[in-house]
Write a structure and sequence with these properties.
The structure is a single chain. The chain is 47% helix and 17% strand. It is built from 10 helices and 8 strands. Strand 4, helix 5 and strand 5 form a beta-alpha-beta unit. The longest helix is centred in the C-terminal third of the chain and has 19 residues. The two termini are 21 Å apart.
């Protein structure tokens, strides 16, 4: 296992953060980190995502794992890397974009759903294959992918909750991406940071239990 993959695996849960402004993104990330989840994927759905990434790294350094998500262009990959992003996540696997992401030297995770897409991602040399939307198949589908790809580092995103977290890891996930059940849209809109922190704490407790 590479050092980069080991750090992602140790983090366990990456919070998929979508916010309407950089300021709200920072407040949301802080609430998540307070709850015990140090992995933050700042998506490019968030305005000025590189600035958010840069500020979170300045605040937390190596104590948090900060990266960029919804990377769909080479320019976005390069801007996120320049901001210090530790990892780059794309919802799909486009060869030219994936190669550019890899060229940044950051941990690269690209999306796949079918066996052919998983093979494409692995052939291109990504660090982690993001199974998305994982809610379509559930942990059973992730486990089925383990048949032809027993050593592939797979990270389900979509449909992950504290209640099923252990099932995803039992099925072979190296980490999970958590969106709405963690960085909840309604709570973000209401600036209910206490609720976000409670959600993060539930994920952190579930991760600890899954690893026992």
């Amino acid at each position: 296992m590479t050092d980069r993959l080991a750090r992602v695996r140790k983090t366990g849960v990456l919070a998929v953060l979508r916010a309407p402004s950089p300021e709200i993104a920072l407040d949301t990330a802080e609430a998540i980190i307070r709850g015990g989840i140090p992995g933050i994927e700042v998506t490019y759905s968030t305005p000025d995502a590189p600035a958010v990434i840069r500020e979170l790294i300045a605040r937390h350094g190596d104590a948090a794992v900060i990266g960029a998500g919804t990377v769909t262009t080479i320019e976005q990959a390069e801007a996120a890397a320049d901001a210090g992003a530790e990892f780059l996540v794309s919802p799909g696997t486009l060869p030219d974009l994936t190669r550019a992401m890899i060229d940044t030297g950051r941990t690269v995770m690209t999306g796949a759903m079918t066996p052919t897409e998983v093979m494409t991602a692995l052939t291109l040399g990504v660090d982690v294959v993001k199974i998305f939307p994982a809610s379509l198949g559930g942990p059973g589908y992730l486990g089925a992918l383990r048949g032809p790809f027993p050593d592939a580092p797979l990270m389900p995103t979509g449909g992950v909750s504290p209640e099923n977290l252990a099932d995803w890891f039992a099925a072979g996930a190296v980490a999970v991406g958590a969106g709405g059940d963690l960085a909840n849209t309604a709570s973000i809109r209401a600036s209910d940071w206490d609720d976000i922190t409670r959600r993060a704490a539930r994920f952190a407790d579930a991760l600890t239990a899954a690893r026992v």
